[in-house]
Specification:
The structure holds two protein chains of two kinds.
Chain A (H helix, E strand, L loop, with lengths): L3 E4 L2 E5 L4 E7 L4 E9 L5 E8 L4 E4 L2 E6 L4 E6 L8 E9 L6 E3 L3 E6 L1
Parallel strand pairs in A: 2-11
Antiparallel strand pairs in A: 1-3, 3-8, 4-5, 4-9, 6-7, 7-8, 9-10, 9-11
Chain B lengths: L4 E3 L2 E4 L5 E6 L6 E8 L3 E9 L2 E4 L8 E7 L2 E6 L8 E8 L6 E2 L3 E5 L1
Classes of the chains: A mainly beta, B mainly beta.
Chain lengths: 113, 112
């Protein structure tokens, strides 16, 4: 059974810092991996989708990498801003039954001005 | 596109009452998912549909829960009778094949 872990559970940084959020998964037979952010009381917003054949994806200040063989993905946020404060979740799609995303428990990020 | 639209945003009801949550997926998307989010259990997949047909309902907690998708632009999740332990945020999400999953804003359910 696929298990997705995100460490740390919470992170607090001053504005302007570059930071890395981690996502680990136990079964490397994944189809793709998606990063989301969730603001309090809101739904999940898709940030980046990485296919299993890809190593990384970039969108603005965000860069997500994928190392399928080691069961790891990272989300790099450059020059963090207070508006980046949110909970970040990763979710993996399996090779089989690939519509069933398995979510991590998230990292709660606070960027202080 | 307006995105995935859910209603109601908030629902407070008493134990034993019937609750109906509604979802309009993004036009053109062929997959629709219902998730439940709680502090204790995180995000749980309840059921998903492909082209309006339920594919996997193994996450539905018990017979009190039912979901329908009568057409490509509408789905409901019904709880009858509701119980306090059903209190959670219920999300609807949609995607086109295996591409990005898009979520609605959620329906926050409180059962007293």
């Amino acid at each position: 059974k696929q298990e997705v872990t995100q460490i740390p559970a919470a992170l607090s940084v001053p504005e302007g810092e570059n930071l890395v959020l981690n996502c680990s998964f136990t079964d490397s037979a994944i189809y793709n991996l998606q990063w989301f952010r969730q603001d309090p009381g809101k739904g999940l917003t898709s940030l980046l989708l990485i296919q299993s054949s890809q190593r990384e994806q970039t969108s603005g200040r965000l860069n997500a990498s994928l190392d399928k063989s080691s069961g790891r993905s990272t989300l790099y946020i450059a020059a963090s801003q207070p508006g980046d404060s949110a909970t970040y979740l990763c979710a993996v799609r399996q090779d089989t039954g690939f519509q069933k995303l398995v979510f991590g428990t998230g990292t709660r990020l606070l960027v202080s001005p | 596109d307006a995105g995935v639209i859910q209603s109601p945003r908030h629902e407070v009801t008493e134990m034993g009452q019937e609750v109906t949550l509604r979802c309009k997926p993004i036009s053109g998307h062929d997959y629709l998912f219902w998730y439940r989010q709680t502090m204790m259990r995180g995000l749980e997949l309840l059921i998903y549909f492909n082209n309006n047909v339920p594919i996997d309902d193994s996450g539905m907690p018990e017979d009190r829960f039912s979901a329908k998708m009568p057409n490509a632009s509408f789905s409901t999740l019904k709880i009858q009778p509701s119980e306090p332990r059903d209190s959670a945020v219920y999300f609807c999400a949609s995607s086109f094949t295996d591409r990005e999953l898009f979520f609605g804003e959620g329906s926050r359910l409180t059962v007293l």
